[in-house]
Amino acid sequence: xxxxxxxxxxxxxxxxxxLHPPVTIISRCCTRxxxxxxxxxxxxxxxxxxxIFGIHHNPSVWPDPEVYDPFRFDPENMKGRxxxxxxxxxxxx
Length: 93
Ligand code: HEM
Known about the structure:
This protein has three helices and four strands, in the order αββββαα. The protein is α+β, with helices and mostly antiparallel strands. 8% of the residues are buried.
């Protein structure tokens, strides 16, 4: 109950998990062909490595990605950002 009353602490924890994700990489096996935005296709059966660290430091999503700034997680600043831009616990299958 107390944690729910501490939104700034939550923002700080999230920003710490963004900057220093404890799990830096995960992998997935494609169960079907996956078409990328540029038209290339990852064939079914391929195993893909997904860099959580890289996603969390993508400068087109996170300006000045090396800077610790909890206000990135202020609800106002999260509008329009993909939920997939921050995945310290992965996102399931
Ligand atoms: C800051 C803390 C933690 C982070 C960032 C974290 C992150 C992750 C990530 C990224 C995965 C990989 C999931 C995937 O491949 O989709 C994972 C798997 C897992 N984590 Fe954690 N974890 C944390 C704490 C914990 C704790 C405290 C436990 C247990 C007490 C735990 C238990 C597990 C288990 C059992 C899996 C394997 C799930 C599976 O293979 O389906 N994790 N975790």
